[in-house]
Write a structure and sequence with these properties.
alpha/beta; 2 domains; 6-stranded parallel β-sheet; 4-stranded parallel β-sheet; Rossmann fold
């Protein structure tokens, strides 16, 4: 199951897979149902890929009559207050389900509770909520942070100084990945985190932040990241004339391309890890299945997408310029994830 979910699909294959579910009887009871995506932020390549995946899979599902609508809404700012208001508007507009990438695990609980009380199914993913009435689809973000340090310990058994690049401040995912990184350092105490900056999961922000802190840092042997910041970090180290550390990448095309160029030129080695943006499509199908009457556990876990030295070229070939290595999910995938959790 994990191997199939982690394989990168082409756009055409994703469309064909989405259309193929029209023959399944599960579509019969949800043809009049309307599902909305509530998203709190769209300011980086991962979020853009997430929204594109949503459109790629839900568009054909609507055309096939599996659901009546699958509309996406993104707030202007990364604000829990604004997203709570958005959720309340979606309730008033009569949506049957809300698929939610939340700005906060707790600040939206009141609005989510209102939705549940109004009979609206809420499925949170990536940025999940803790309100018990909602469903949650999550990657083990702490483990995603910890394995970065584990990889560095294998490559650099003597340890050294690390620079941590965090994500968007105040967001659950940022806190969880950072906690995993620090747990990894506790497990491998030969490493010391000597600096930490927020890169907002965007390479330009990360580049400025790393450039600003580098003059105050000693030699850095590794950079632990959250995604969207590896290429920016590399540019900052290069501009500063500093030795290039092992930078953990986050599956963005610009990171993978830079890695490939360095690999070809000097044998540079690293790894790349992130949650696939297409997890939004898994959340869509889970919501559709709940609306169709299937019993679904409240908590579902999907694997993160890891790219290694050996799989770099294959993933780079299928990742669009400016995009993110991705997986888009079918109804069959969703059913398998549900059954695995049952």
């Amino acid at each position: 199951m994990a191997r199939r979910l982690l394989s990168t699909r082409s756009l055409g294959a994703a469309l064909a897979a989405a259309l193929s579910v029209a023959v399944l009887p599960a579509s019969a009871d949800t043809s009049d149902k309307r599902i909305a995506l509530s998203n709190n932020y769209a300011g980086n390549s991962w979020r853009q890929a997430m929204l594109t995946s949503w459109e790629t899979v839900t568009g054909p599902a609507v055309e096939a009559g599996i659901v009546a609508a699958a509309d996406a809404f993104t707030t202007a700012e990364n604000s829990a207050t604004e997203q709570a208001a958005q959720i309340q508007n979606l309730i008033l507009q009569g949506y049957d389900a809300i698929v939610l990438n939340a700005a906060s695990p707790t600040a939206l609980n009141g609005a989510v509770r209102e939705a549940c009380d109004a009979g609206v199914t809420v499925v949170s993913f990536d940025g999940i909520v803790t309100e018990p009435c909602a469903w949650r689809i999550a990657v083990d973000f702490r483990e995603m942070g910890r394995v970065q340090v584990e990889y560095l310990a294998d490559r650099l058994p003597e340890g050294g100084n690390l620079l941590e690049i965090r994500g968007l401040a105040g967001v659950f995912v940022d806190d969880e990945i950072s906690a995993g990184i620090h747990a990894g350092v506790e497990q491998y105490p030969q490493f010391t985190i000597v600096g930490s900056v927020h890169g907002d999961w965007a390479q330009d922000v990360a580049q400025r932040a790393v450039a600003g802190i580098l003059p105050s840092l000693p030699e850095i042997v590794g950079v632990v990241t959250q995604g969207g910041d590896g290429y920016g970090a590399a540019q900052a180290f290069q501009a500063a004339g500093r030795p290039m550390p092992i930078i953990i990448m986050g599956n963005r095309q610009d990171e993978l391309l830079w890695w490939k160029e360095q690999k070809d030129a000097s044998g540079y080695e690293t790894m790349s890890v992130s949650i696939a943006p297409g997890v939004s499509t898994l959340a869509f199908w889970v919501a559709q299945q709940i609306l169709d009457g299937r019993e679904v556990p409240k908590d579902l876990v999907v694997p993160f997408l890891t790219i290694t030295q050996d799989t770099l070229e294959a993933n780079l070939e299928t990742t669009p310029v400016g995009g993110v290595a991705n997986v888009e999910y079918t109804l069959e995938d969703a059913v398998a994830v549900i059954e695995d959790a049952g």
